[in-house]
Specification:
The protein has 14 helices and ten strands. The protein has helices spanning 2-17, 28-33, 53-61, 70-78, 104-111, 132-138, 155-164, 181-187, 200-205, 209-217, 227-230, 246-258, 260-273, 279-294, and strands at residues 23-25, 40-44, 64-67, 86-88, 118-123, 146-151, 170-174, 190-193, 221-224, 239-241. The model is unreliable at 5-17 (pLDDT under 50).
């Protein structure tokens, strides 16, 4: 909070003495507190369970609000925002970065992974609503020769996971350089997005960048059947399973193994669908929204 307030103070001085056409921020304190007559646009990735004065002020004084999910857009309108003031611009992906020229086995060789096993991968943070713990529990429901890899997390989270989960086929490898992630996604037989439905951010608000990365990789996906996920994925592009249920997740993974043709068709459909979700398209969408709002 102190860091945000210091930055707000510095930005306020800048606003007083420098000409700026438009301000764009994801910071609540700046959106609510910056004193300027210039248009300000506020991007929101989550909402407090209960509305606050600070949040109401930020939304009231913003010239436009950008959200990453339909769930957020609907909730803002319920809380009083006008529909024309809110733009839905979901997260996106650098598709070229995930267009890996190596095949699955070449990726495994580069990463030092077994060539003769089924490999299931999750990439991302390990905090609660991400559902990585559900994936870790699902490992025990899978055959011993199906290897489960959890890639990501802070050192503390990785240490706790290793203490809590000990299936022989579970590998918690921790943080990896972002340059390696496309290789992990291509090396996998299945990618898992086990988002929890226990918190609103996961169930309705999130637009996970890893979802778009998974889709761009062309690898079959098993994901939680939640409103936030169904905004982008449906049963024509992935296997959707009940959230927060390790056995359901494991069964979804087994479905991919049982019907490889079905999984390949859905992965190809996901790869084709995600081609519109580029950062360039997102930037153009937001720029057009800003230009229309300030005319």
């Amino acid at each position: 909070m102190l860091e945000s307030m210091c930055f707000l103070g510095a930005l306020q001085l800048y606003a007083l003495f420098r000409k700026t056409d438009v301000y764009y921020t994801r910071d609540l304190s700046i959106a609510a507190g910056l004193l300027t007559r210039r248009p300000l646009f506020y991007e929101i990735h989550s909402l407090p369970e209960r509305d606050t004065w600070l949040h109401r002020r930020a939304c009231w004084r913003a010239s436009g609000i950008i959200v990453i999910s339909e769930g957020l857009r609907k909730e803002l309108i319920v809380r009083g925002a006008t529909a024309q003031k809110v733009l839905l611009a979901r997260d996106a992906v650098d598709i070229a970065r995930f267009d890996v020229t190596l095949d699955r086995f070449q990726c495994r060789k580069k990463l030092g992974l077994p060539l003769d096993r089924k490999i299931i991968v999750y990439t991302g943070h390990l905090y609660g609503w991400k559902g990585a713990d559900v994936f870790a529990r699902a490992a025990a429901e899978l055959p011993p020769d199906t290897l489960v890899y959890i890639v990501g997390g802070t050192d503390d989270d990785v240490r706790l996971f290793k203490q809590q989960f000990a299936s022989a086929n579970l590998h918690i490898v921790g943080w990896k350089n972002s340059r390696e992630i496309p290789l992990w996604l291509k090396a996998a037989d299945v990618l898992v997005l086990p988002t929890s439905g226990k918190e609103t951010i996961g169930a309705r608000y999130t637009s996970p960048m890893k979802l778009f990365e998974y889709m761009a990789s062309g690898t079959p996906i098993v994901a939680s059947n939640l409103p936030s996920i169904r905004e982008v994925l449906d049963e024509s592009r992935a296997i959707l399973v009940a959230p927060d249920e390790p056995r359901a997740l494991a069964e979804g993974i087994r479905r991919v193994s049982r019907d490889a043709d079905m999984a390949t068709v859905r992965a190809s459909a996901a790869r084709q669908y995600v081609s519109e979700y580029t950062w360039e398209n997102r930037a153009r969408q937001i720029t057009d929204f800003i230009n229309a709002a300030i005319k």
